[in-house]
Every structure is written in C-alpha cells, then in structure tokens.
Design goal:
With 124 residues, the chain is mainly α. It is 63% helix and 0% strand. The protein contains 7 helices and no strands. Helix 1 packs antiparallel against helix 2, helix 2 runs antiparallel to helix 3 and helix 3 runs antiparallel to helix 4. The radius of gyration is 13 Å and the shape is globular. The relative contact order is 0.13.
Length: 124
Amino acid sequence: MKGYLKDYGQAILDINEALRISPQLIRARIDKAFLLSITEDPELRAPEVALGLAKEVLARDPTDAHAMNAKACALAAQKNFASAVEWQKKASENNEWLKDELIGGGYHAAARIAAWESGQLWRP
C-alpha cells in the first residue's frame, strides 16, 4: 500500500476506489482511518472522518486491534491524547497485533504512547 511509502494521498485514493468497488472491506476502512489521522498534510488530515470509520468497524468487531489503533490515532489527531493512550493500550492487549511491524501495527505502539503522553503527535 502506498501509505507505507508516505504517499498518503495516493493511498487514500486507492482505498476510496477499493471501497467504491467493495464497500464491505473492513481493512480498507481501518487503513483509511489510520492514514487520515497520521498524515501531516492538512488538506488530507480528517480526524473526524477517521474516528467515524474506526467506530463503524469497532461496532462490528469490538476486538479488532487495528481498528482500536485507528481510533487511537484519530483521537490523538484531535489532540485527545489521554483517550488515544487508553485505546492504544486496549489494542496492545492483542499479542498478534503487537508483532505487526507495518506502519499501523503494534510494533509502533510504545512509540505512539510515548509521543501522546508527552502531548505530541506520533509520526512514522
């Protein structure tokens, strides 16, 4: 996915196309929420949309660690760092997610928490 190369704009366009074709793609919703939260581009950043997408996925599967992470990142993008840390810690209870070294994986959870606890946004 282009998001992993920091081409967030193109990645979001690709995800939008995937969702147009298959609106039921849960992982695409999670990835879009994550990217809308972490991008440094103010024209792309949309934490409110991201939070809505993460909540939709969590309503279907409240145990999805990737969705919890997306929600945490959306909350952090809104500068709600305390809630972001809480959701990141919930996601971190999933040992499989913690092993995920991709940009949205749990491998980066400790760095996200550290940034948010210091009142900073996490940037990959």
